[in-house]
Design goal:
- By secondary structure, the chain is α/β, with parallel strands linked by helices.
- 43% of the residues lie in helices and 11% in strands.
- The strands form two sheets. It has a 32-stranded parallel beta sheet, with no helix packed on it. The protein has a 21-stranded parallel beta sheet, with no helix packed on it.
- Helix 22 links the parallel strand 21 (594-596) and strand 22.
- Helix 50 (1388-1398) runs parallel beside helix 51.
- The longest helix has 14 residues, at 37-50.
- The chain is globular.
- The model is unreliable at 1-12 and 95-100 (pLDDT under 50).
Length: 1500
């Protein structure tokens, strides 16, 4: 019999279903997630008419539409055995769209069927009329007990009909209406039904729009209802009044056992009411209060209730604001309570006192099995108490201590507890700092513990010693099945130990090692382990250092491995040969379901091999190939596979080089493929032709749910075909068309489609060319569309009238939750309209209005709306023009609003008196988590007021006060607040005026504060004494991970103090000390800390006074340090001996990935030493040596090294004296190098010969993305050679040939290359000798090229003739966004031609015409173009001949233009009158932010 994992298709369907007609034993058939469709359902229905044994049939996720549903319904009329039918997530629609629909047919069958008890119709497209027909059936049906209708678009009429049916129905026990559009009125109707209904036991109303009045009605029903046992009301908008009413009902109700109120807004008062009810209620078993703003007082009253309550078994208090007092109260209750088994306190503010209280309770409590304490600041003291309790507790099975600031001492205590505990099966210690020593003691415990099955030690600063200890434990342990070690500091040595353990271990099924520094030897060891291990199913090694030879070694093992299901190899160095090896695995492997090969170096050959494997593979359902080098050829191969493959559900091809031809091939496959659900083609080179093909495919495809086409070149023509397909498509839920070229015309076609489409939920249209007409068309649709939940219209050209139309739609729309209008042209009247809509709208949770032109009156309206709105949680208004009145209004709104958690007002006009008012609000506000007040002129007095607010505030986690005027006394006030505040995790105080005294008082807070993880003190006035005080705090602080002290005045003694602290501190990972006064002595003492410290990963010592002896000391530390990944030594005074020492350290160091030594004084010996180091170093990715003293013989040595190196990705050799011979050596290295993606060779005396060699390398190299050859002597011959390489190269993205003596011949060759190249996006030809002849060939190529986005032709010899050719190309080109033509000889005729193209072109954003010969006529043409152009944002016209009259014309255009943000007119003789007309234009212009008019004879 087929299993769930098999995909059943046509012929197999028919044979199976035919057999059902005669089968006499089969009772259960589960065909979920196959590709049955209507034809299969019809065949199956025929079999059901005669089959007499089948009782359960699973058909979820099978693309069955109304035809299939009707056939099944017809079968139900005569079938007499089927009791359960699952049709979840198919395409069943009601008769609003299709007459005789599937829902209606099923309802009709229910009227006569007498056996079916469960009907699952969740996640279909059933609306009111479908629900009404089902309701009619329920009035007479006498067998159905369960009806699942969750996440359909059922509204008022449908719910009321179902409620009416419940009044007479005598059999239904479960009704699921989650995720519909139910409001208070419908909840009241259901409540009325509950008063008379005597059968319903479960009612699910999660994720609707029920407020207090709806909850009150349901509560009233519970007082008399005697059958309901489960009521799900999570994710609604219920506050205190609703909670109070439900509490009253619980006092008399005697049947309800489960009440879910998660993510509402009941607060402490609501908790108090529920607690009173619990004291007398004797039936409730589960109470979920996650995310309800409950603080200590609420927890305390619930605890009191637990002392007398004798039924509650599960209490969920996750993500509230409970501190130690609340936790201790709950602990006291646990000592006497004898029923609670699960207590979830994740994400609160419980410290060691609260943990100790809970620990005491565990010693006597004998019922609790699960205790969740993740994301609290418990620390070692609290954990030690809990560990002691584990020694005697005999019931707890799950303990979650994730992200609790636990170090070695806490791990030691837990290990001792595990040695004697015999019940704990799951222990989560993710995100702490237990380090190697902690892992070692836990490993010892694992050798004797026989119950723990899951251990999470991710991101715990564990290195090789810890991994080795755990490996030894795995050889003896017989219970552990899951071990998570992701994000630690394990290298090859530790990996080899773990792999060795896998050979004998027989229980571990999941091992997560992603984000460690494992290289060749460790990875090869896992390959060997696969040969004998037969139980591991999941191995995660993403972000390791995997290359082809490792993949080949693995492939043999994987061919026979029969357990592994998930293999994550993203972000490695796998090329075509590695992909071919994996393809060989896929041909024989029968277990792998997920393969992630994103961000490698796989080209068409590798893609073709994988595609061929997919033709026979029958298990893989997810394949990630994003950010490789696949072109149309690879796409063709994959398309062929998709026509045959019957399992692949997700294919990710984003950020490759697939064009229209590749898209057409994929589209052809989609017409017949019946399994693919997600296709990601973001950031390829697809235009209208490809979009047209995909649109046609959607008309036939019946499975694709998500299509991503972000950052392509699709215009209205292609979009029209896609949108036309939406009219008939019934599966697509997500369509992403961000950053294309769609205008109002295209959107109007979309709006027409959305009137009919009833499946699309998410639509991204960011950064197109949509204006008010398009917004109005979409708004009209939103009034009736029942499915769209997310609409992204950011970075378009929508003004107030468009915003007003959208606001009008929001008044009646009941599905949209997210509306993004970032970066449009909305002013106060648009904001006011949106505000009015928010007063009645009950679904929108996120509104993004940043980067518009909203002032005080618009802000006041929005703030006023927040007083009554109860759903909006995020409002973004950054970068508007809001002043005092508007900002003050938000402060008032916070006093009554209880749902907004994020308000972003940065870069408005915030003053001190506004902040003083806000501070008062913060004292009582219980929702805001992030407050950004950077650059708001805040002084000490205002800082003190904010600090007072922090003492009582219990929700704020991030406070940004950077760039203000805070001095030591302000720091003192903040310190006092930090001593008691238990929620703030990030404090930004950079660019203030804090000195040593301020730093010293802050340290007092750090000694006791247990929540702050990041402190930024950049650019203050901190000297050694301040640094010493901070260092003293680090010795006892156990939470701070990031300390930034850049640009202060710290010297060696300050560094010495920080060193002493690092020796014992176990949490700090990032220390920034750049731009201070640290010398060799300071560097030497820091190295002493690095030898023993095991947490620091990044150390920045930029621009200090470190010389060779300091560098030598750092090098000595690197030899033993195993955690540092980044060391920045830019702009010091390191010479050869220091560099030699660092290079020598790299030979043995296995963790450092980035070493920055630019702007030092390193010469031959030091540079040569780095070349030798690369022969053995396997982890360094970035080495920056620019602006040192590199010579030819050094480059030759490096070139030899590059042929073997497999890690270096960026090499900067600019401004040296390399010449052709050394360039040839580097080029030869590039032919075999497989990692370098960026090579800078600017200013190096390279001529045609060197360019020829580099060109040869580009034909075979498959990784280089950026090549900078500016300011050499390449000439036409060199340019021709490079052009020839570009015809076949498929990786180069940026080529800089500025200042290279290239003329028309070279430009001609480059132009011809553009016609076939599909990857180059940026070409810089500034300061060459290109005239009209060469330019015309370049511009001709732009007609067909769809990849180039930036073209720089400044300072050449292009005249009007060349500009006219360019203009013709721009009328067709849809990719170019940036064009530099400064310092050519373009006059009025050229400007006129370019202006004509601007009226048509819809992609160009920046046009630079500085220092040309443009006068009045050219300016007139450009001004006219600006009146209609809707994409150009920057226009540079400095040093032309515009004059006063030209200025008048441009100013008139600016009055109506809606996109231009920068206009440069300096040195154009516009005079006072020109300045005056511009001043008038600025009064009405909504977008211009930068205007340059200097050197124009403007007077006072």
């Amino acid at each position: 019999m087929p299993t769930k994992s098999q995909h059943i298709r046509s012929n197999e369907n028919l044979a199976l279903f035919e057999a059902l007609k005669t089968f006499s034993t089969l009772t259960t058939l589960d065909l979920t997630r196959n590709s049955i469709g209507d034809d299969g359902a019809q065949a199956l229905a025929e079999a059901l008419k005669t089959n007499s044994t089948l009782t359960t049939l699973g058909l979820g996720y099978n693309s069955i539409g109304h035809d299939g549903a009707q056939a099944l319904a017809e079968a139900l009329k005569s079938n007499s055995t089927l009791t359960i039918l699952n049709l979840r997530s198919n395409s069943i629609k009601d008769n609003n769209l299709i007459n005789d629909s599937g829902a209606q047919a099923l309802a009709d069958a229910l009227k006569t069927n007498s056996t079916l008890t469960t009907l699952e119709l969740g996640e279909n497209l059933i609306k009111d009329s479908g629900a009404q027909t089902l309701a009619e059936a329920l009035k007479t049906n006498s067998t159905l007990t369960t009806l699942e209708l969750g996440f359909n678009p059922i509204g008022d009429d449908g719910v009321q009909a179902l409620a009416e049916a419940l009044k007479t129905n005598l059999t239904l026990t479960t009704l699921n209406l989650a995720g519909n559009s139910i409001k208070d009125t419908e909840a009241q109707a259901l409540a009325e039904a509950l008063k008379t209904n005597w059968t319903l036991t479960t009612l699910n109303l999660i994720s609707n729009s029920i407020k207090d009045s709806g909850a009150q009605a349901l509560a009233d029903a519970l007082k008399t209802n005697s059958t309901l046992t489960t009521l799900e009301l999570g994710e609604n908008s219920i506050g205190y009044d609703g909670a109070q009413a439900l509490s009253e009902a619980l006092k008399t109700n005697s049947t309800l056992s489960t009440l879910n109120l998660m993510t509402n807004s009941i607060g402490d008062s609501g908790a108090q009411a529920l607690a009173e009810a619990l004291k007398t209620n004797s039936t409730l078993i589960t109470l979920d209060l996650l995310g309800n703003s409950i603080e200590d007082s609420g927890a305390q009253v619930l605890a009191e209730a637990l002392k007398t309550n004798s039924t509650l078994a599960t209490l969920n208090l996750t993500s509230n604001s409970i501190r130690d007092d609340g936790a201790q109260a709950l602990a006291q209750a646990l000592k006497t309570n004898s029923t609670l088994t699960i207590l979830n306190l994740d994400g609160n503010s419980i410290g060691h006192d609260g943990a100790q209280g809970l620990a005491e309770a565990l010693k006597t409590n004998s019922t609790l099995t699960t205790l969740e304490l993740g994301f609290n600041p418990i620390g070692d003291d609290g954990v030690q108490a809990l560990a002691e309790a584990l020694k005697s507790n005999s019931t707890l099975t799950t303990l979650n201590l994730r992200s609790n600031s636990i170090g070695h001492d806490g791990a030691q205590a837990l290990a001792e507890g595990l040695k004697t505990n015999s019940t704990l099966s799951t222990l989560d210690l993710h995100g702490n700092s237990i380090q190697d020593s902690g892992a070692q003691v836990l490993a010892e415990a694992l050798k004797v513990n026989s119950t723990l099955t899951t251990l999470d030690l991710g991101r715990d600063s564990i290195g090789n010693e810890g991994a080795q200890a755990l490996s030894e434990a795995l050889m003896a342990n017989l219970a552990l099945t899951t071990l998570d070690l992701q994000g630690n500091a394990i290298t090859d040595t530790g990996a080899q130990s773990l792999a060795e353990a896998l050979k004998s271990n027989s229980t571990l099924t999941t091992l997560d090692l992603q984000g460690n520094e494992i290289w060749y030897k460790g990875l090869l060891a896992f390959s060997e382990a696969f040969n004998t291990n037969s139980n591991l199913r999941t191995l995660d090694l993403q972000n390791s250092l995997i290359e082809n030879k490792i993949v080949w070694a693995w492939s043999d093992a994987l061919k026979t491995n029969s357990t592994l299901t998930t293999l994550d190899l993203k972000n490695n160095s796998i090329e075509d040969s590695g992909a071919q090896a994996l393809a060989g695995v896929l041909r024989t492997n029968s277990t792998l379901t997920i393969l992630n090969l994103g961000y490698n170096s796989i080209g068409d050959d590798g893609a073709q091999a994988l595609a061929e494997a997919l033709e026979t593979n029958s298990t893989l359902d997810t394949l990630y190939l994003w950010s490789n080098f696949i072109t149309d050829n690879g796409s063709h191969a994959l398309s062929k596979a998709l026509k045959i493959n019957s399992t692949l559900a997700t294919l990710d091809l984003q950020n490759n080089s697939i064009g229209d031809e590749g898209a057409q091939a994929l589209a052809e496959a989609l017409k017949t493929n019946s399994t693919l659900v997600t296709l990601d083609l973001m950031s390829n080179s697809i235009g209208d032709v490809g979009a047209h093909a995909l649109g046609e495919a959607l008309k036939f495809n019946s499975t694709l749910a998500s299509l991503y086409l972000w950052i392509n070149s699709i215009g209205d023509n292609g979009a029209h075909v896609l949108f036309e397909a939406l009219k008939s498509d019934s599966t697509l839920t997500t369509l992403d068309l961000q950053s294309n070229a769609i205008t109002d015309n295209g959107v109007q076609g979309l709006a027409e489609a959305l009137k009919i489409n009833s499946t699309l939920t998410t639509l991204y249209l960011w950064s197109n060319s949509i204006g008010d007409d398009g917004a109005q068309a979409l708004a009209e649709v939103l009034k009736t569309n029942p499915t769209l939940t997310t609409l992204n219209l950011a970075r378009n050209s929508i003004r107030d009238s468009g915003a007003q139309a959208l606001a009008d739609a929001l008044r009646t729309n009941s599905t949209l939750t997210t509306l993004d209008l970032l970066g449009n042209f909305i002013r106060d009247s648009g904001a006011q309209a949106l505000a009015e809509a928010l007063k009645t709208n009950s679904t929108l949770t996120t509104l993004d209005l940043q980067d518009n032109s909203i002032k005080d009156s618009g802000a006041q309206a929005l703030a006023d709306a927040l007083k009554s709105n109860s759903t909006l949680t995020t409002l973004d208004l950054q970068n508007n023009k809001i002043w005092y009145k508007g900002l003050l209004a938000f402060s008032e709104a916070f006093k009554s609003n209880t749902n907004l958690s994020t308000l972003d007002l940065r870069n408005n006009l915030i003053g001190n008196k506004v902040i003083l008012t806000w501070a008062e609000t913060l004292k009582t506000n219980t929702t805001l988590t992030t407050l950004n007040l950077e650059y708001s002129s805040i002084g000490d007095d205002t800082a003190r007021t904010l600090a007072e607010a922090l003492i009582t505030n219990s929700t704020l986690t991030t406070l940004n006060l950077a760039g203000n005027l805070i001095k030591d006394s302000g720091a003192q006030a903040l310190t006092d607040a930090l001593k008691t505040n238990s929620t703030l995790t990030t404090l930004e105080l950079g660019f203030n005026l804090i000195g040593d005294n301020g730093a010293q008082v802050l340290t007092e807070a750090l000694k006791t504060n247990s929540t702050l993880t990041a402190l930024n003190l950049t650019s203050n006035s901190i000297k050694d004494s301040g640094a010493q005080a901070l260092a003293d705090a680090l010795k006892s602080n156990s939470t701070l991970t990031t300390l930034i002290l850049t640009s202060n005045s710290i010297k060696d003694s300050g560094a010495q103090a920080l060193t002493d602290a690092l020796k014992t501190n176990s949490t700090l990972t990032t220390l920034e000390l750049g731009f201070n006064l640290i010398g060799d002595n300071g560097a030497q003492v820091l190295t002493e800390a690095l030898k023993t410290n095991s947490t620091l990963t990044a150390l920045n010592l930029t621009s200090n006074s470190i010389k060779d002896s300091g560098a030598q000391a750092l090098a000595d530390a690197l030899k033993s340090n195993s955690t540092l990944t980044t060391l920045i030594l830019t702009s010091n005074s390191i010479k050869d001996s220091g560099a030699q020492a660092l290079a020598d350290a790299l030979k043995t160091n296995s963790t450092l990935a980035t070493l920055d030594l630019q702007k030092n004084k390193i010469w031959y010996k030091g540079l040569f030493a780095f070349s030798e180091a690369f022969n053995t170093n396997w982890n360094l990715i970035t080495l920056d040596l620019r602006n040192n003293l590199i010579e030819n013989k050094v480059v030759l040595s490096w070139a030899e090294t590059l042929t073997m190196n497999t890690t270096l990705t960026t090499l900067n050799l600019g401004y040296n004296s390399i010449g052709d011979d050394r360039a040839q050596a580097l080029a030869e290295a590039l032919e075999t190098d497989s990692t370098l993606d960026t090579l800078y060779l600017w200013s190096n005396f390279i001529t045609d010969n060197g360019s020829n060699a580099l060109s040869k390398a580009l034909k075979t190299n498959s990784t280089l993305a950026t090549l900078d050859l500016q300011n050499n002597s390449i000439g036409d011959e060199g340019a021709q050679a490079l052009a020839e390489a570009l015809k076949t190269n498929s990786t180069l993205v940026t080529l800089d040939l500025m200042s290279n003596s290239i003329g028309d011949v070279g430009a001609h060759a480059l132009g011809e290359a553009f016609k076939s190249n599909t990857t180059l996006t940026s070409l810089y030809l500034w300061s060459n000798s290109i005239g009209d002849i060469g330019a015309q060939v370049l511009f001709e190529a732009l007609r067909s090229n769809s990849a180039i986005t930036t073209l720089d032709l400044q300072s050449n010899a292009i005249t009007d003739n060349g500009a006219q050719s360019l203009a013709e190309a721009l009328k067709i080109n849809s990719a170019l966004t940036t064009l530099y033509l400064m310092s050519n000889s373009i006059g009025d005729k050229g400007a006129q031609a370019l202006a004509q193209s601007l009226k048509i072109n819809s992609t160009l954003i920046t046009l630079n015409l500085r220092t040309n010969l443009i006068g009045y006529e050219g300016t007139h043409a450009l001004a006219e173009a600006l009146k209609t152009n809707s994409t150009l944002t920057s226009l540079y016209l400095m040093s032309n001949s515009i004059g006063i009259n030209g200025a008048r014309l441009l100013s008139e255009a600016i009055k109506t233009n809606l996109t231009l943000t920068t206009c440069e007119l300096q040195n154009n003789s516009i005079g006072d009158k020109g300045a005056q007309v511009y001043s008038e234009a600025l009064e009405t212009n909504l977008t211009l932010t930068t205007l340059y008019v200097w050197r124009n004879s403007i007077g006072p």
